[in-house]
Amino acid sequence: SKTRFKEVSSMFNYGFANFTNKIIIDAETPLEFKAEIKGGKKENCKLFAERSIYLFSDKGKERVVDIDFTPITGIKAPVKVGETLGKITVYENGVEIDAVKVFAGENIDGKSYFDTVKDVTENWGIAG
To answer: Are 30 and 105 in contact (CB under 8 A)?
Structure first.
C-alpha cells in the first residue's frame, strides 16, 4: 500500500505541475454580453451563465477559443430572474467544445403608460 500511495502521489504531482484548468466563463460573474429587452423599464438585463465553463490544458500551451453569444430574439418585458435569454457557445478551431444557457440575473418590469409618456417628452425636449 505504501508503494501504491507513492505512485498515486507521484501522478498527482505530475498532473498539478503540468496541467491547468482555466476558467473561460464564470457563472458567478455577470457576463459582458447584452440581451435587448423590448418594452422594459431597462433596455438591457444583467446576464449570467447557467454554469461555469473550464478549459483543461497543458500549462505551457496556449489554447485559443472563440466565445459566441446567441440571444433569444424578441425578448419582451417583463423578464424574471432565472429566465433563459440565450446561449453561449465556446469554439476551438471552429469546433464546438461546450455550450451553456444564459439567464436573466435581474427582474425587468414592463414600461407603464406614464413611463412611455415620460420617454416621449424627454426625447422631444418638453420635460425640464
So the answer is: yes
Specify the pTM: 0.77
Task: State the number of CA atoms in the 13 A half-sphere of 125 facing the CB.
Answer: 0
Q: What is the 3-state secondary structure (H, E, C) of 19-87?
A: EEEEEEECCCCCCCCCCECECECCCECCEEECCCEEEEEECCCCCCCEEEEEECCCCECCECCCCEEEE
Q: Which three cell numbers stand for residue 35?
A: 440581451
CA dihedral 38, 41, 44, 45 (to 10 degrees): -110
The dihedral built from the CA positions of residue 19, 25, 30 and 31, taken in this order, carries a sign that is: positive
Tens digits of residue pLDDT in 74-84: 999 999 999 99
